[in-house]
Design goal:
The protein has helices spanning 25-42, 59-62, 64-73, 89-102, 110-123, 126-145, and strands at residues 2-7, 10-16, 52-53, 76-77. It has 153 residues and is mainly α. The chain is built from six helices and four strands; from the N terminus they run E-E-H-E-H-H-E-H-H-H. The protein has a two-stranded antiparallel sheet. Strand 1 and strand 2 (10-16) form a beta hairpin. Helix 1 runs parallel beside helix 3 and helix 4 packs antiparallel against helix 6 (126-145). It is globular, with a radius of gyration of 16 Å. The relative contact order is 0.15.
Amino acid sequence: MCTIFWDAEGILLIDFMPQKVTITGVYYADLLHKLRLAIKKKRRGKLTKVPLHLHDNAPAHRLHVGQAAILESGFEEMHHPPYSPDQAPSDYHLFPYSKQHLRGQRFSTDDELKNATEEWLKEQSELFYFTGIEKLRQRYKLCTDKGGDYVEK
């Protein structure tokens, strides 16, 4: 499994979970601390404002340790309506394009797949990431205007 944190400027952090490892609240909390360090390094000065953090309703995200890590990291959590893939930029923007790029390729090892994924992510322009976040802004507003109803497309 690959967890990707990104913003309107590009990739912040990529984490490839080892096989047969389950994401837990502790694992997720550790990722959030790594994310804060990545933001400090890659987006100097951006932590002077409270970064918004959007994640889905996965159990590890809702556990106390994960929620505490959000607060410790200084993030403000955006509300994510349940069962709303139309509100997850990675689901509607990032992953479909990456899957399309990787489709049909054969990889001998997990490392080859990881490298191909990382290279593709790095090759994308800032406009690609900006567009994904802009779509979120529009989708989030539409969902809010409809009182949280599911609004795919």
